[in-house]
Amino acid sequence: MGGLGFFGLIVIAFLAIQVVPYGRDHSNPPVRQEPAWANNQTRELAVRACYDCHSNETKWPWYSNIAPISWLVQRDVDEGRDELNFSRWDQSQGEADDAAETVIDGEMPPCFYVLPHPEADLSRGEKELLIQGLRATFGGEDRGGEDQRGRREERQRLAQAKQP
Ligand code: HEC
């Protein structure tokens, strides 16, 4: 290691991982079919906050060319498209009815993504519109037995209240 030093080793390791093929492909397969969006605004908000990982219209940023960031970006896009792909509405997308919920919970878009993507940093009002739009497009208010039971009880109460 004659005089290479620690920093030299880091540089060599950094250069070496750049030749790993994984994460360099950056493919955007054809858009087969889009959901029947409830309105244009919902689509626009989804494009801003979701499409990089949940469609075939990913915008690959410059740093997605640099390992190891490229590996993380690739994994997000692969897993994101796997779970829910707005460009493949010709196939069943089982997670669509959870879409609104993930925004309500602040789970999507992921916070590490929002930081370098200010356009995905939706205002309160925009979030509200997106949630409404996702529900209008995909449904998803009925989550689990708990919720449905609550609503059934509510209906019974209303029905009883109406009886003379
Ligand atoms: C940085 C990439 C990225 C962005 C941007 C993103 N997602 Fe995701 N999403 C993922 C990944 C990766 C998964 C699978 C792993 C997981 O569940 O965390 C996922 C999973 C999901 C799931 C299914 C699993 C679950 O948690 O219920 C839904 C629904 C979803 N995302 C909706 C959205 C919506 C709606 C948006 C935009 C408001 C969005 N995502 C933005 C990467 C992303």
Largest sheet: none
What's the β-strand tally?
A: 0
What number is the mean pLDDT? 90
Calculate Rg over CA atoms: 22 Å
Identify the overall geometry. Answer: elongated
Number of helices: 8
Q: Termini separation (Å)?
A: 92 Å
Residue windows where pLDDT falls under 50 for at least 5 positions: 142-149
- Structural class, from secondary structure content? mainly alpha
Helical content (DSSP H or I, runs of 4+):
40-55%
Which ligands occur here?
heme C
Describe the structure.
This protein is an all-alpha fold and 164 residues long. It has a domain at 35-139. The chain is built from eight helices and no strands. It has helices spanning 5-17, 40-49, 51-54, 69-83, 99-104, 111-114, 124-138, 144-162. Residues 142-149 have low confidence and may be disordered. Bound molecules: heme C. Heme C binds next to helix 3, helix 4 and helix 5.
Please give a handful of descriptors for the protein shown.
164 residues, 8 helices, mainly alpha, binds heme C, 52% helix, 0% strand
Secondary-structure topology with pairs:
Blueprint: H1 5-17, H2 40-49, H3 51-54, H4 69-83, H5 99-104, H6 111-114, H7 124-138, H8 144-162
The chain binds heme C.
Brief characterization of the structure:
The chain has 8 helices and no strands.
